[in-house]
Amino acid sequence: MGPLPKRRWSTRRQGQKRATHSLKKISLTVCPNCREPKLPHCACLKCGYYNGKQVIKIKEAKKKVNENSK
C-alpha cells in the first residue's frame, strides 16, 4: 500500500489548487490587411500576411463547376 495523506484537505486549500484549472479567454486582433480576426503575433490564416509582408502562400479554393446546370 502506498503513502496516504495524514489529514484531509480543507475546502479552501482544495479551491486554491483548482483555481488554476480555469479556461483563459483567447484574445484576438484584427488583421490590418484583410480585416479578419487573427491571433496576436501570428501570421493571418486568411491572407498569409504578418507585419506587412506575405509570409505564407495561401491556396485559393477552386470553384466547383456544376455539370448538370449546362
Notable characteristics:
1 helix, elongated, two-stranded antiparallel ribbon, little secondary structure, single chain, 70 residues, two-stranded antiparallel sheet
Walk me through what this model shows.
The chain is low in regular secondary structure. The chain has a domain at 26-59. The protein has one helix and four strands. The mean pLDDT is 89.
Quick structural overview:
The chain is largely without helices or strands and 70 residues long.
Outline the fold blueprint:
Layout: H1 11-18, E1 29-30, E2 37-38, E3 49-50, E4 53-54
Antiparallel strand pairs: 1-2, 3-4
Structure annotation, total helices: 1
Spell out the helices and strands N to C: HEEEE
Strand order of the largest sheet: 1-2
Large-scale geometry = elongated
Question: Termini distance?
Answer: 77 Å
Write down how many β-strands occur, each being a DSSP E stretch of 2 or more residues.
Answer: 4
Residue ranges: pLDDT <50 for 5 or more in a row?
none
Secondary structural class = little secondary structure
Q: Describe the sheet with the most strands.
A: 2 strands, antiparallel
Roughly what percent helix?
10-25%
Rg from C-alpha positions?
25 Å
Mean pLDDT: 89
Tell me the β content.
5-15%
